[in-house]
Amino acid sequence: MQVSVMRKITNLLKTFLFPIAIYLLILIVTMLMSKGGYASAGAFDRIIRGSVLTTITAYAIALPLSGARWDFAPGIIIILSGIVGSNLAIQWGGGPILLLMLTIVAAVVFSLLEGLLYLWIRVPTIIVSLGVVMMYEALSGIVFGGSGTQLFMYPDLTIFARTPWVYIVLAVIMVLFHFLLAYTKFGYDTRSLSANPRLAINMGVNEKKNILLTYLVVGVLLGVAAVINASTVLVTPASNLSSTSLMFSSMGPVLVGLYLARFSNLPLGIFAGALGMNALSYGMVVLGVNSSLQTVIIGVFIVGFMGYTSNQDAIRAYFYRRSKGGSRAQV
To answer: CA-CA distance, 54 to 272, in Å (whole number)?
Structure first.
């Protein structure tokens, strides 16, 4: 029992070693360059608070990705459901709970429509989702006269983006997401389909049902993300695939989190990945790095990280052979 507890603690530390290392590295750099503010309580709050939206969006991306389904629609579903839910809540004079419910319902509807379209035409999701993005972006410029939403102007509706509610929402989502994946038939079927689809289907797993349930869960996650997003920024109609930036901003945490998840679980791995990537992004802001260079640095970092983690056995074997060769040469 004691060994098991120690192993879990060790794995937890391994999971969060990545964001801790990134933060300490940036902290040292900022101190050497005499840049203040990175070690303040405000910096901690900004990094963690910024990780909430990223983490929830990353969950919605990682779930279909585990079944090899690349989806470009999360960004526009966040925008569109945020516009619909916010405007209806404002028009009906509802509170934050009604806002959350309306936005989740809208996101679930948009997500399930995408899932049904995928099952109907049976072409790769990367193609279906691009078509869905274009249709939903056009729709975002039509609903409510194309006015978008300015939910942040209604403080009584934006409590889910403020402390402590934003952290409570994240904790609830993390617990439910972990329970869903680890302790339900849906989670078992999802893991089976991602490991060996043909074998899972032959064993009786209903793939179509699993796909629809996946899009249902994705819709709920994106609905929560839409409320947080609309509560903090001006949401305007999207066009020319501009909504995909929301999806791509969460891809770093997804890719890093999928690796870190081997030490603990997927929800914690993605959260640790989001913390690390947000610490890196905020650190570059403190250092005065311009936005274009930030994108380049983050892209290089993700490629380097994935390159190492995907080939770490070969890299270790190479350096092991080099060390052995060096030892023989000395003899």
So the answer is: 11
